[in-house]
TrEMBL record:
Gene3D superfamilies: 3.10.450.50. Coiled coil: none annotated. It comes from the Bacteria. This is Ester cyclase. Residues 12-111 form the SnoaL-like domain. It comes from Streptacidiphilus alkalitolerans.
Amino acid sequence: MTDLERNKQIVVDYYRTAFGGNPEKAVADHFGPRYVQHNPDAQDGPEAFIGFVGWLRGEYPDVQLHIKRVIAEGDLVVTHSHLDLEPGNPDNPGRALADYFRLENGKVVEHWDVIQDVPKQAANSNGMF
């Protein structure tokens, strides 16, 4: 397996584990010695990430993360995902996420994201995913 494929697997496991309800395990298994967060609404560090996932699952207990694409280059892995906050609720179609992760020695150490609400209606029929 190439380093790129290994990094992709690490990020997918980290992300699915965290949003599947076990952010503590995701952090323990996949975070490096530091976690630098570039989202201006989020703090650095694993405790902040664990707190965010806990809050999100408290607000949306049935939340589901659907990873649609995974791209890797160098030490970066990018995911394009659908964060379905209330599965089956057409009034809340969720959010589209583009997440950028930087890894060192097989561990996630840095994160950037771009978040967009999925609209109920679109100007085209292409879909966001």
